[in-house]
């Protein structure tokens, strides 16, 4: 029976009803959604390759393969986020479905100025097709469960230097908003094992006639139980004036020093984090496995 659209689950507007019931129709619809949400913030959408297959006589998706190689997406803020399905006031139909295999790759895809080599796959993802009284179609997240878990993996690799360059740009803007000029920034990222890394960021800043250096340090590690621990977090400067300015920052950093985050327990039912690895070299490689 039709009912009000509950905001309890994430909802993605997906064009107009009815739902696409063939692979080519699903691929075309997904391309339309990507173009609508990313069109003003991306280039290379014409290079994106989408292949899809549906299950005849069923709302399920057999497979969805998306190749975003060559896509360039600029940094977006909260104001750039896709519009929610705010026009859907009443639901006229719901169909529960399963996406049996979803694959995504980009060799590379450029995100916020960083070229990322991406490979991802997720299996048995449950969702619901939602039709609104206004003729709209949406995809609603359907809660996974321990009886119906998802599985899959993600591998993302990016140039270490490119990431540092992006951090430098963000820091330059953030400091400029406070009236400071960032004259230099060196970031030393060191591997402490397959699940741990430490970072030392040394910056030189200037404000008027004041010029000094500051340093921020932190170490992150993930144990066998998939608990993330932040340690050795701090900020310092040999310049007493800058050190005083860092007091507020240091207080916030001390709040997270020693903080433990249970990654496994923070995931919804049916999503089990089985492994996380971070390899640090000329490239930073993040590998995640679920299920």
From TrEMBL:
Chain spans, region Disordered: 1-23
The name this protein goes by in its record: DUF2993 domain-containing protein
Organism of this sequence: Oerskovia rustica
């Amino acid at each position: 029976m039709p009912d009000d659209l509950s905001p309890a689950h994430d909802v993605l507007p997906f064009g107009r009803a009815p739902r696409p019931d063939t692979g080519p129709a699903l691929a075309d619809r997904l391309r339309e959604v990507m173009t609508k949400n990313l069109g003003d913030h991306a280039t290379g959408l014409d290079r994106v390759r989408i292949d899809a297959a549906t299950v005849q006589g069923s709302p399920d998706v057999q497979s969805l393969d998306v190749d975003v190689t060559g896509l360039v997406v600029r940094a977006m803020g909260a104001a750039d986020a896709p519009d929610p399905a705010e026009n859907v006031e009443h639901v006229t139909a719901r169909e529960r479905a399963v996406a049996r295999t979803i694959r995504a790759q980009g060799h590379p895809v450029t995100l916020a100025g960083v070229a990322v080599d991406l490979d991802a796959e997720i299996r048995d993802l449950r969702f619901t097709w939602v039709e609104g009284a206004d003729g709209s179609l949406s995809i609603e997240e359907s809660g996974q469960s321990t009886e119906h878990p998802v599985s899959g993996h993600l591998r993302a690799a990016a140039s270490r230097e490119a990431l540092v360059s992006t951090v430098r740009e963000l820091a330059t803007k953030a400091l400029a908003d406070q009236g400071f000029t960032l004259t230099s920034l060196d970031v030393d990222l060191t591997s402490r094992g397959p699940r741990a890394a430490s970072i030392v960021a040394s910056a030189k800043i200037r404000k008027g006639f004041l010029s000094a250096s500051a340093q921020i340090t932190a170490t992150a590690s993930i144990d066998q139980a998939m608990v993330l621990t932040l340690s050795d977090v701090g900020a310092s400067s040999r310049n007493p004036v800058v050190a005083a300015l860092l007091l507020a920052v240091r207080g916030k950093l001390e709040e997270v020093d020693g903080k433990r985050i249970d990654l496994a327990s923070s995931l919804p039912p049916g999503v089990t984090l089985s492994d996380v690895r971070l390899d640090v070299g000329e490239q930073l490689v993040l590998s995640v496995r679920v299920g």
